[in-house]
Specification:
Strand content: 25-35%
Low-confidence stretches: 30-37, 118-133, 135-159
CATH topology of the largest domain: Immunoglobulin-like
Number of domains: 2
CATH architecture of the largest domain: Sandwich
Radius of gyration: 26 Å
Bound molecules: calcium ion
Distance between the termini: 84 Å
Number of helices: 3
Mean pLDDT: 82
Length: 363
């Protein structure tokens, strides 16, 4: 009987010792980077850059963006948000992401090569000369609210920019027609053909407005308006592009889950938010369909958005390689830009609700 309390004390000590040893071991393993979860990683993976070239890296844990990561690079400059600029000297460098709440650490290698070293990998593309023009290929758009002849769609050439009717806005909530169209909301044309095919080449008339953007390295999406975006701040607007990057309705955000995709399986949603009354001029963002979690998630990417000087055209620039790598990692889909389809949407929030224009029209 007298031995009992003693046994308890000894048992307690043994248990405590086991816990202490386990704690020390786990910390030792973590500090060595052993036990690093396979899901904490840097995207994009291994990349090749030219001296001075930039690349947006992001740290992902369990398919989600990991905020608060501490970024370091063995050479070159890396900002607190993971934007890296390659150094002048060619070589291999390490980008390291330090997990904010643990000892987890992950790294990728960047190859910096002299500007002319890998130019042979990208021969000029002869098809690039076939630049579509807006003016020469007017396709009449059916009035939006007349009975739709949708089942007898004619097969359009991929290079045909379609035109969206004027005054064809709807209520975003009810999809019923509305009588007015705030300027900068009524879409005239977009980077899609009438059968929703994505047009990779910016038409001649618009190309000069983004001549400083490298269209080989970037995906450039655009919209034109019947009435330009006002310079006087008036209301909140969104301009959105939904892309089915493999032209496969069975992959991506399921059809009909959103108003923009009654007929496309969307992997990428690119938006530009404008609310000058709240100090937001043009704020681009990108969401990628996360197949595992069945949701679209916001990702960090080096995006650019601009209006033309006449404010009747909007452009968004997305780094294509980074986009493709993110889609592969998050959506598990291989982009095929020749088969990609999509739809543009412009909205404006008025005192009577949110009005919207879809282009091409919803079926
Ligand atoms: Ca329109
Ligand atoms: Ca798809």
């Amino acid at each position: 009987m007298a031995k009992r309390p003693q046994q308890w004390v000894i048992g307690g000590f043994i248990l405590l010792a086991i816990l202490v040893i386990a704690f020390v071991l786990v910390n030792l393993l973590l500090s060595q980077g052993i036990g690093l979860p396979a899901t904490f990683l840097i995207l994009p993976g291994e990349v090749t850059l030219h001296p001075g070239e930039g690349c947006q890296f992001r740290a992902v844990a369990g398919d989600r963006l990991m905020p608060g990561v501490k970024w370091t690079a063995s050479d070159g400059d890396i900002g607190p948000e993971g934007f890296y600029v390659a150094p002048d000297a060619p070589g291999d460098y390490q980008i390291i992401a330090q997990h904010p709440n643990s000892e987890y650490r992950t790294a990728v290698t960047v190859h910096v090569v002299a500007a002319d070293e890998n130019s042979t990998e990208q021969p000029p593309n002869p098809t690039e000369t076939a630049i579509p023009t807006i003016a020469s290929t007017v396709t009449s758009a059916a009035p939006a609210h007349s009975p739709s002849p949708a089942p007898t769609q004619t097969s359009a050439s991929v290079s045909t920019v379609f035109f969206d009717a004027a005054g064809d806005l709807v209520s975003f909530d009810t999809l019923g027609p509305v009588a007015f169209a705030p300027p900068g909301t009524d879409i005239r044309a977009a980077c899609f053909a009438s059968e929703r095919q994505l047009m990779r080449t910016v038409p001649e008339e618009l190309a000069g407005k983004v001549s400083d953007w490298d269209t080989k390295e970037n995906l450039v999406l655009w919209l034109t308006f019947h009435e330009p975006v006002p310079t006087v701040p008036d209301m909140e607007r969104y301009w959105i592009f939904a892309l089915d990057v493999d032209g496969n309705t069975a992959t991506g955000r399921p059809i009909d889950e959103g108003k923009i995709n009654p007929d496309i399986g969307v992997e990428v949603t690119i938006g530009v938010h404008s609310n000058p009354t709240a100090g937001i001029e043009l704020s681009p963002y990108i969401m990628i369909w996360n197949t595992r979690l069945a949701t679209s998630e916001l990702v960090a990417m080096d995006l650019d958005a601009r209006l033309s000087t006449t404010r009747d055209a909007l452009f968004v620039r997305i780094p294509e390689k980074q986009l493709a790598e993110t889609i592969r990692a998050v959506s598990g889909v291989e982009p095929n830009w020749n088969q990609a389809a999509g739809r543009a949407l412009a909205t404006a929030t008025t005192s009577e609700g949110t009005v919207a224009d879809f282009a091409p029209e919803r079926p």
